[in-house]
Specification:
With 378 residues, the chain is α+β, with helices and mostly antiparallel strands. Helix content is 15%, strand content 31%. A 4-stranded antiparallel sheet has the order 4-1-8-7. Strands 3-2-5-6 form a 4-stranded antiparallel sheet. A 4-stranded antiparallel sheet has the order 12-9-16-15.
Amino acid sequence: ILLSSNYMAYHEQKSADLSQSHLKDKVSLFISCKDLVQKDFNSKSDPFVVVYIRDKKTSKFKELGRTEVIQDNSYPSFTTQFKLDYYFEEEQLLRFDVFDEDKRGSKKLKDHDFIGSVPMILGELMHEKGQTMSKKLLTKKGKGIKNKKSKRYSSITVAAEKVGQANNALIKLQFTCKDLPRMDSIFGKSDPYFRITRTRGDNEQELSIYGNRENHIKKTLNPVFPAFTIEAQKLCNCDPYTPITIKIYDWDSGDVSKDDFIGEYTTNLNELKSKPRGLQLTRKAKSKKNKSYGTLNVVQFSSEPLYGFLDYLQGGAEISLMTAIDFTGSNGHPKDNGSLHYLENYYTKGEPSRYQKAIRQIGNIVSVYDFDKKFPVW
C-alpha cells in the first residue's frame, strides 16, 4: 500500500515536471579569453578556466568543470565545452575563474596563480545577441586587470549554443597531410599540428573544437596525425552540413604567436564520411597564385551511434528492480537507535528505518520502469 501511494505521488510530481519541460533547454558553453596578463616571469601564462554554478538551495557555488590547459597563450580558445540545463524561469548564476597553471597536473587550485574571475547570469547570456557575452576579468577586490603589453583589459568571452541531441554519434577520425611547404627555412622542414574550428549558428562566430599545439609532429612535410574520437554534437552539433574547418599550423618554440599558419580546408561531416583525399589546403589571405600549401587526407572515419536511456527503452530493453538487504551484525540490532534497521519509530510514529527510506526513495523511481512490477527481495 505504501509503495502504491508513493508510486501515485511520484507520477503526480512527474506530470507537474513535464508541464514545465518546455521551459528547459540543454545548452553548451564555449570559452575563450583575450589579453590575459603574464603570470610567469619569462613566458606567457598557461591558462585554464574553472566554471562554477550557484546552487539554488544552498546559494553556494559548486564546480561545473574545468577547461584544458593551453600552454603559453594570452589569447586561448578552449575546446572543452560545458553542458547544462537552461531554465527560462530561474536565475542561474555562473562564475568563471581563470588560472595560470604552475604545478603541472595538480588539481589543487592553490598550486596555481589566480588571474581573474567574473560572474555571469545564464539568462543574460542567452538573451544577448548571438548568445555571446564578453566581460572584463576582475581581481578578488573587484578591479579590472590590464595587460601591460597590449594595454587592454583581460577579458573572457562565453558563447552558448543549444545542444543538438538527435543522431549523436562517436566519430573516429584520422588525418594525414602531404607536401606541406617548408616553413622554417629553405632546407628545413615543418613541425605541423592541426586545429578544428566551426561556426556557430547564423552569426558566423568561430568556435575552437579540437586540437592543441602541444600535439605537433616534428620535422616532417608529410605528417600522419594520430587518430582521435569526438562526439558529433561537439564536432558539428549533429548537423552533417555545418561547415568544419581544419587548420594546419607549423609549431615554433615559444608561445603560440610564433606559430606559422600553413593552410586550411573547410568541409562538413557528410563529406568526411567518404574519407576524401587530396584536399587542397588554401589561405584566405596572402595566398600566392599557383602556390601549393599541401594537401589533406582523411584516412580514417567511423561512426558509432550514442544511445541514451530513452533509446534503450524504445528498443525494448526490459528492466527489473531487485533489492538485497544487508543484515550483518555490524549494522546493529533493530532495537538499537544507531542501527540502520531501527524500527521503534516505525511502530510508534510510523517513521521508516533508514533502510526502508533508501529502498522507497530509489525503488519509487526505478519501479516505474520495471517490466513486470514484481520486485524480488533478498
